[in-house]
Amino acid sequence: MDYKAKWMEGNGPESAIVVSTRVRVARNLAGVPFPGTMNEIQAQGVIATVEAQQGVLEDMHVQRMAELSQVDRLALVEKHLISLDLANKSDGAVAISSDQAVAIMVNEEDHLRIQCLLPGLQLEQAWETASRYDDLLEAEIPFAFHEEYGYLTACPTNAGTGMRASVMLHLPALVGSGHVGKVLAAIGQFGLMARGIYGEGTQAVGQMFQISNQVTSGLPEEEIIRNLRGVVEQIVAQEKAHLKKMTATSRLQVEDRVFRSIGLLSNVRLLSTNEAMSLISDIRLGVAADIIDLSPGLLCQLMVLAQPGVLQKECTESLDSQQRDVKRAEILSKRLKQALRGGNI
Amino acid sequence: MDYKAKWMEGNGPESAIVVSTRVRVARNLAGVPFPGTMNEIQAQGVIATVEAQQGVLEDMHVQRMAELSQVDRLALVEKHLISLDLANKSDGAVAISSDQAVAIMVNEEDHLRIQCLLPGLQLEQAWETASRYDDLLEAEIPFAFHEEYGYLTACPTNAGTGMRASVMLHLPALVGSGHVGKVLAAIGQFGLMARGIYGEGTQAVGQMFQISNQVTSGLPEEEIIRNLRGVVEQIVAQEKAHLKKMTATSRLQVEDRVFRSIGLLSNVRLLSTNEAMSLISDIRLGVAADIIDLSPGLLCQLMVLAQPGVLQKECTESLDSQQRDVKRAEILSKRLKQALRGGNI
Question: What is the pLDDT confidence band of residue B216, given thresholds at 50, 70 and 90?
Fold first, then answer.
C-alpha cells in the first residue's frame, strides 16, 4: 500500500522499543547559494541537476512539492519521508526509493538531504545506505566541501560530516516511572539530544522520543554512530528494566491499561490524533511487556494512519475535523479488529 | 441461575427506561411489639407464625438471616429481595417465591414486609400480587389495624395502607441535559420522592433513580399507584424527549460514548462496582437510543453481577477487594462478549 514506508514494517532489531532509525547527510552544490538565499532559477537548476542523475536514482522519481497536493505533502511528512519545512516550500522536491527506505529532499535547508529510514535499531545499515547514495551522487555532482570544515551546510551546526543519525524510541516505562526526564537530560553530555516525534520543536506524543547526535563535526561518521548506538542501547536496557519492574509489581494494572486501550481503539466512533497516539502507545507497551502479540508493523501503520494527511489520502472526499475523527476511528478500529481476529490474542 | 430475580428478566413495559417495579405492604401482628422493641422470643414467634402459613407460602421457604452466610445475605440485598437493614438483623427472616418475584421480609422494621418485584413498569400487577399474599396471610394472621389510622406500622409514615410502590428509572438523557434535578424536585408536590438505587439514604449510581410514594395514608392503594404511574409516565416521556434531542444533535458523540463503554466493559482486567455501573449505564443508553441491540435482561444481570456479594457467590474461594475487581472484570466482560457474539451487533 502507498502509505507503507520501509520503517513502518516495524521488524528491525529491538523493535519493541526502537521504532525506527534514520540517518541523513546534508549536501550542497558547490557554487550555488544555499536554498535560503538562492533565487527561483537556481532552485530549479538544483532540481534539474538531481533529476539528471538517473543512474543513481534508478527507480526513484523526483517529485516537485509544487506538483503535489497539500494532502500528499502532509502525508509524506507524517510518514517521516520529508520535513514539514520542505512540504511548505514551493521550490522543493523529493526523490523516494520504491521501498520508501530512501528519501532525498531537494532544496530543504540544504540543497540535498539524503536520508535512509529503517525499522528498529539499524544505525549502521541506514548509514551505509545513505552513504552509498552520497558517494554515487558525489561522483557526478561537485559538493561544497572545505578542507578544514568538511561539508558546508546552510546552518553551521550541520557542517563537517553533514550527518545526523537518529532513533525513535518508545519509552512508556521510563515515562511511567518518572525517570525519563533524568535519562534524556543526561544524554547531552554525550553530544546527543532528544526531540519530539516530528523533529525539532515538536512535542513528544505517544511516549515517543527521537534521540540524535547534536555534533556533526570533529568525529568520523562511524564514531558518531557508535556513540549514539551505545547510548541508545543503554536507554533500551533501562526501559526494559523499568518495564520488568513495572510488570513485576503491577502486572494487573498494566494488563488492565493495555486491554482498556485495545477495547477503546477497536470500538471508538470519534478519535483525535492525540488520543489515537496515546492508545497505540499503551498497546505497544502491551507488546513490549509480552501481554499481547501484535506486530510492531501494525502499530507503526496505525500510528501513521492516525495522522490527518495520511488519513485524508485514504478517503475520496475532503474531510473536516469531525469527519476526520469519525474516519480515523473507523479505519483504526477496523485494522485493529482485523489483526485481533487474525488469532494473535 | 440462582442470581436471577424475576425483575432481572428486564422485559416489562417501558423496559428501556423503567428497570423494575416494586410494591410492598408493611404489616404487623396484632398484640406483638414492633421489631424495634420486641424480645428474642417474640421475634422467633413471628417467624414461626409465618412458617406456619404453608398454604399461603406454597413453594416459598422461610430462611433465617442467622442461618445465611454474610455473602448470601449481601447477595439478596443486591438482588433487591431484602433490605440491608434486614440482612444485618440476626432475628430476621425472608420467604422468597421460586420465581423470585415475591419476597416476604420478616422482622425488618415491621413484622412483615410483603413485596413483589417485577421487570419494567408493572405497578398494577405488582400491587395485585403483593395484595393477594396480604389477603391470604390476613385470613390466617390477625394484623394490627386501627379504624382511623389503618394498618399500624413501626414508623407512622408507613401507617394507613402500609403500601409503598416504587419504580427504578434509568435517566441518562435527563442527567446529561442537566434537567434531572428539576424533574425530581418537582415530584414532591405529588407526594412522591426520589432515592438511590439501594433505597433510602443511598446514592444514585449508574444514573438510576427510585421513585416512590411518600404518603401511605389518606388515599386508597389504587389511587396512590395511579398517581405514581401518572408521574412516572411523564418522566419516561421527558427522558424519551431528551434522548431524542440528544441523539438528533449529537448522534456521533452518543454512539462514541456507547461503544467506548462496550469496548471497555468487554476488555477491562480490573473493574470496580462504580465503574461497572457507569459503563452499564452507558450501554443501556445505547439500547434506549436504538444504537445497539442487547436485551435489557442482560444489562440487569450485569448490574447485579457487578455487586460484591453476588460476585462472591459466583466464586468458590473468598476474594479480597482487588481479587473482586479482577473477577468482576472477568465475569462481566465474558458475559458481554458472549452476548455480542450472539449476533446482536
Answer: confident
- Residue A166, classed as helix, strand or coil, is strand
**Cα–Cα distance, B216 to A146 (Å, whole number):** 100
Using the beta-carbon criterion (under 8 Å), do A264 and B269 form an inter-chain contact? no
The kind and range of the H/E element at A79 are none
β-pair type (A208-213, A163-170): antiparallel
Cα A19–chain centre separation:
9
- Helix, strand and coil percent figures for chain A, each rounded to 5: 50, 15, 35
Q: Where are the domains of chain A?
A: 240-340
Low-confidence winner among A4-8, B55-59, B277-281 (lowest mean pLDDT): B55-59
First-last CA distance in chain A: 25
Q: Which of B3, B15, B5 is nearest to B296 (CA)?
A: B15
Write down the pLDDT at residue A1: 39
Report the run of H or E that residue A21 belongs to, with start and end. strand A18-27
Please state the ipTM of this predicted complex: 0.87
pLDDT at residue A166 in the model: 96
Decide if A146 touches B, using CB distance below 8 A.
Answer: no
Cβ within 8 Å, pair A263-B268: yes
Could you say which DSSP state residue B32 is in? S
Coil, helix or strand at residue B83: coil
Distance, CA of A279 to CA of A261 (rounded, Å): 5
Chain Cα centroid distance, residue A232: 16
Q: CA of B183: how far to CAs of A97, B189, B224, B288, in Å?
A: 66, 11, 19, 19
User: Can you tell me the distance from the alpha carbon of A301 to that of A299, in angstroms, rounded to the nearest whole number?
Assistant: 5
Inter-CA distances, A270 with A266, A267, A324, A336, B155, Å: 11, 9, 9, 15, 53
Q: Which residues contact residue B9 at a Cβ distance below 8 angstroms, ignoring those fewer than 6 apart?
A: B119, B297, B300
Distance CA A276, CA A209 (A): 17
Beta bridge partners of A209: A169
Count other Cβ atoms within 10 Å, centred on residue B330: 17
Cα–Cα distance for residue pair B191/B72, rounded to 1 Å: 35
Chain A residue nearest residue B330, CA to CA: A256
| Whether A276 contacts chain B with CB within 8 A | no
Q: Across-strand partners of A102?
A: A116
The distance in angstroms from the start CA to the end CA of chain B is 25
Structural contact between residues B146 and B201, judged by C-beta atoms closer than 8 angstroms: no
User: How many angstroms separate the Cα of A52 from the Cα of each of A55, A57, A58, A137, B295?
Assistant: 8, 9, 11, 10, 69
Q: Which three cell numbers stand for residue A83?
A: 520535513
Give the mean pLDDT of B282-305: 94
In a mutational test of the A interface, the residue from B255, B257, B260 whose CB has the highest number of chain A CBs within 10 Å is B260
Nearest-angstrom CA–CA distance, A279 and A294: 14
A329 and B268 in contact by Cβ < 8 A?
no
Chain A environment of B265 (Cβ under 8 Å):
263
Asked if residue B81 lies in contact with residue B4, where contact means CB atoms within 8 angstroms, the answer is no
Task: Give the strand pairing for A102-106 and B192-195.
Answer: unpaired
Confidence of residue B344 (pLDDT cuts 50, 70, 90): very low
Instruction: Look at residue A208 and give its three-state secondary structure.
Output: strand
B291: alpha, beta or left? (left if phi > 0; alpha if psi -120 to 50): alpha
Compute the Cα dihedral for A234, A235, A239, A245 and give only its sign.
Answer: positive
**What kind and span of H or E run contains A119?**
strand A112-119
